[in-house]
Amino acid sequence: MCQKQLCGGGSATKKGSCFHVVCKWRAQFLKAKMGANHFRFSNVSRLGTHRHRIEDPVQPSFLCSQSLGNCLIMSQPVAQEILTELESLRLIDPHTHINPLAAASETLADVMGYHYYTELAHSAGLSRDQIEEPGISPKEKVGRLVPWLASMENTVQYSWLLEMCQTFFGFCDERITESNWETLYDASLAKMQSPNWEQQVLEQSGLDQVYLTNDFDDPLTGFDTAFYVPCLRTDDLVFHLGKPEVRERLQKCTDVNLDDSASMKDALAKLFAHFTENNARACAISLPPNFAPRAVPASTVDTLVGKVFSGTELTESELESLSCFVFWSLAELCAEHKLPFDLMIGVNRRVFEAGVFQGQDLYDKRVSLIQYKELLNAFPQVTFPISVLSETSNQELVSYSWIFPNVVTNGHWWYSNIPVFIENHTRARLQAVPKTKQIGYYSDMYKLEFALPKFAMYRRILAKTLAQDFVVDRGWSVEKSVELGKLVLRGNVEAIFGPV
Ligand SMILES: [Zn+2]
To answer: pLDDT, tens digit, for every residue of 339-363?
Structure first.
């Protein structure tokens, strides 16, 4: 850091009138980064800790304007250095909802129709009827949402929108408003209609691979499975066999006559064979807070499978037994096929029934990972990348991943995917979980354009955390910190799910 930058912040204060107590690592960092001549160091050892008092004869307020333990200004240039390195890394996105047959957006309505924006607009006052009126054109939909952007311009979700528009569509204004949105709409349309738009987005976003979320009866044809990597999503199998359409789909795609536990296992085995033959890298499921997986004897389930597939309605406790049996069978198949089992734990569906599409579900912090004790103990050979939604759950996840070799921390899911929680969760994980057991981030995107702003957000937080917690607080070199960042951002994805 040059003296000019050092002196750039804060107001002038009387020389030597001000000091800031820092730990020895910060003192060493300051000395190394800013030059010893800017500081006088004097020992103020007390309570057995070695501390330094620093007086800054150049610009005392530079340090004093920061609270103790929040040396942001000190770590900012380092964070920038780390960020530049992390930005050079090409990415794998290990969980998305991309349709590989229509991966990129076709109009701005595909971008602004993302549930984060419709939820926020609805929450701020736009009626669901206006948002979801059947038959409205994409342009009309965007036009209805735009007036509500002003009320959400403080949100990080809005910052993603702005970053996408600036990066992909050449948008230069500070805000998307009722007076400039049509120009933006037309400019974005021209871009999205250009040849190879999908490739342009992938290239600009630096993506090497995009993992999918596939229904169990997805034929997995018509796309390159080496790039768009299939993952078997199993919510329907575990929780919705009570619905006739789900049973029909399962029977149809497996060609198994389902009437007992053995035939259920056969059908599931066929799905795993189909998916693994097509390069599937994971089995995945989202789980409600009250679910507690357990082994259920086949004899208990024999009659239940027969009953449900003959159209008889099961009781709640029978459905719970069936769910546990199917879930347990999936874990056994993950063991057999060496597939990681992604668990996304803690979502209650349809909490806000009048909410917009995909804007009805919320988490419930009463969930505990203790409910997964039997599973985690029973399948030491299966890797469970786990995503959670609440702060409490993250603290549990950090501890479970610290103790259980088969538990891996996975990204920042849904309501946790905002900077304040990403930062807290990232710091806790980096401080306490083996570095090889952390998958830093996934975008959860529905359209390709979202990977860029979401990963950019994560990288900035990761760089800031590495600079503060590792370089400044623990005296790590920038190179060593960058290595750690690259491991959680990409290296672990390949180690856990398989190489590109
Ligand atoms: Zn998802």
So the answer is: 999 999 999 999 999 999 999 999 9
Residues with CB under 5 A from ligand 1 (ion): 444
Q: 13 CA to middle of ligand 1, Å?
A: 52
Task: For the chain, give the mean pLDDT.
Answer: 88
How far apart CA 205 and CA 212 sit, in angstroms, is 17
Give the tokens for residue 310. Answer: 């003959």
Give the tens place of pLDDT for each residue, 35-72: 444 444 333 333 333 333 333 333 333 333 333 444 55
Q: Domain check: are 346 and 460 in the same one?
A: yes
- Residue 84 within a domain: no
**Cα 444 to ligand 1 centroid, rounded to whole Å:** 5
- Output the CA 199–ligand 1 centroid distance in Å: 23
Is position 92 within any domain?
no
Tell me how many degrees the CA angle 140-142-143 measures, rounded to the nearest 5.
Answer: 60
CA of 141 from ligand 1 middle (Å) equals 24
- Shared-domain flag, residues 138 and 252: no
CB 298 within 8 A of CB 343: no
Give this prediction's pTM: 0.86
Q: Are residues 432 and 488 in the same domain?
A: yes
The CA 441 to ligand 1 mean position distance, Å, reads 12
Q: Are residues 290 and 186 in the same domain?
A: no
Domain extent at residue 289 = 202-497
Q: Are 170 and 246 within one domain?
A: no
153 shares a domain with 31: no
The torsion angles phi and psi of 439, rounded to 5 degrees, stand at: -95, 115
Question: 347 CA distance to ligand 1 centroid (A)?
Answer: 11
